[in-house]
Specification:
With 292 residues, this protein is an alpha/beta fold. It has 2 domains: 9-165, no CATH class; 173-283, FdhE-like fold (Alpha-Beta Complex). Helices cover 45% and strands 13% of the residues. Helix 2 (27-45) packs antiparallel against helix 4. Bound molecules: zinc ion (ZN) (2 copies).
Length: 292
Amino acid sequence: MTTNHVWDAAGVQQAVSQIASIRPAYADILGFYGPVFAAQVNAAVDTCPEAIRMDDSLLEMKLNEGFSLIDPSAFTVDNPSAGKLLEALCRIAAAAGEKLAGVGEALNRSIIGGALVDHLFADVLDDKGRIRDFAESTDVAPDLLSLLLYLAVKPSIEAGARQLATHLSGIQEKRDSCPICGSAPILGELDPEGKLWLHCRLCWHRWLVDRIACPFCKNRDAASLEYFYSDDEPEYRVNLCGKCKRYLKVVDTRRIDRSFYPPLEQVVSIHLDMMAVEKGYVHAMGPGSPAK
Ligand SMILES: [Zn+2]
Ligand SMILES: [Zn+2]
């Protein structure tokens, strides 16, 4: 019910090339993310973070009360695996334009110089300012630095989410935030049966929500629930709630003949985030996200 499909590099590469042929405007973005996704699914095979320990009574309380199971800081990172992946990501970044190359080089110098990047991996999850300090000391853009570090720890986070998902039951459905880690959803998915799932922006766990209500404010008044889509991209629609002014970008998997790899669909549909923001709506992740 709640587990996501496990991908291999060939499947991801096929999905990337299928989408590259129909979205030429995203050639540069796919030139970066295509190899990144492949490197991540390859790294995931050998990623084995320490099991997240949860006290049974705490787990029971959280399940009964409908709380998310953990804070993001409780995810564990397989540091050697994330380090190896980060090296691969730095090489990919080096070929992907000046700004990302600069960040990749700064990180690479630290790795080669033996500086610990483990504390930067931890900062992705607990946000204690170490990434910002490193960005200042190396004169690189903090958002790009955060992006590369997040991409490197993502296989660990996803492994933790898969571990914790085994504890979930139906009571965690219909939430406006991730039942595993409490983070906001980044993307919606309509499955072959027309059910609506949300995907977590951090751990990419997916959970079921009510299709006919706004997932954020539970508004069910059809007069204030709208959506827009383009005839050129019938597989995407953007749900708009006139009450809380939030939007949700949704991929209708019944309208695609390519494989559905959620992180890929997210990065090749940023134009829809921009359109929703222009119309005055805000993403669940907050103003400016992810339509940068
Ligand atoms: Zn999550
Ligand atoms: Zn709403």
